[in-house]
Write a structure and sequence with these properties.
The chain is of the alpha+beta class. The chain is built from two helices and three strands; from the N terminus they run E-H-E-E-H.
Length: 64
C-alpha cells in the first residue's frame, strides 16, 4: 500500500534517515523515499497509514 505524505519539517538527509528508521521500526520491509527539498515522503508498506504517521510523529516530525 503506497502512501504519499508531506513532512514539513523534513530538512536534511539526517532527517530523512531518522524518518526512514522510524518507519522501518513499524514495518521492516517498508520501502521509503523521502526528499527534503519537496518535503515529500513516499512509503510502500503493509502497515496502516495511522501506524506510519504515528511512527513519524514519535520521531519528532509533523505529518501535514
Amino acid at each position: 500500500m503506497p502512501l504519499s505524505l508531506t513532512v514539513p519539517n523534513l530538512a536534511c538527509s539526517a532527517c530523512v534517515e531518522t524518518v526512514t528508521k522510524a518507519i522501518q521500526a513499524v514495518d521492516a520491509t517498508a520501502q521509503v523515499a523521502a526528499d527534503p527539498k519537496t518535503k515529500a515522503v513516499t512509503v510502500a508498506t503493509e502497515a496502516s497509514e495511522a501506524d506510519i504517521k504515528q511512527a513519524i510523529a514519535a520521531a519528532g516530525y509533523t505529518v501535514a
